[in-house]
Every structure is written in structure tokens, then in C-alpha cells.
């Protein structure tokens, strides 16, 4: 999975762009967002995704918001020494 930040997202049209950790802007359509209920993203939101080949070029798929809890548990497990 690639990490990135939502650059912009138009809720009315159901698409936007994610800036990947490498700096590339990747198109995202609402059908590529994995979440329950209304599928939307907010500018500045951190996400994980994969890049697939869409009809008009590369696009984000399997997009999942990165929750603060996920980040905290990852940092805790990295900081905890293993015995």
C-alpha cells in the first residue's frame, strides 16, 4: 500500500486527487474508496491506496483513510522492545 494525502476532492462529482508520498498526483474516483456509508475524502486527510490502470491512466484504488489510532499503534509497536 502507498501512503498519501488527499489534495482535493469534489463530493458532487465523486472524484479528486491524492498526492502520493513520492509527490505524484493520482486520480481517485469514489468507487475506489473503501469505507462504509457515504464515500468521501477531505483535503489533507491521510490515506493508503494502490495504483491501478484506469480508462484514462493511473488511478487510486482500495483507498482507505489512515486513522490516528492505526498510526499510534504502529508507533507503539515500533517503540516497544521485543524480548
UniProtKB/TrEMBL annotation:
Residues 58-83 are annotated as: Disordered. Gene3D superfamilies: Nucleic acid-binding proteins (2.40.50.140). One of its GO terms (molecular function) is nucleic acid binding. Keywords: Cytoplasm. One of its GO terms (cellular component) is cytoplasm. Residues 66-83 have a biased composition (Polar residues). Residues 1-65 form the CSD domain. It is found in: Cytoplasm. CDD domains: S1_like. This is Cold-shock protein.
Amino acid at each position: 500500500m502507498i501512503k498519501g494525502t488527499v489534495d482535493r476532492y469534489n463530493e458532487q462529482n465523486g472524484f479528486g486527487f491524492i498526492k502520493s508520498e513520492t509527490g505524484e498526483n493520482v486520480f481517485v474516483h469514489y468507487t475506489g474508496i473503501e469505507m462504509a456509508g457515504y464515500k468521501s475524502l477531505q483535503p489533507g486527510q491521510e490515506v493508503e491506496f494502490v495504483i491501478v490502470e484506469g480508462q484514462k491512466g493511473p488511478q487510486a484504488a482500495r483507498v482507505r483513510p489512515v486513522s490516528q489510532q492505526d498510526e499510534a499503534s504502529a508507533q507503539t509497536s515500533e517503540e516497544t522492545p521485543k524480548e
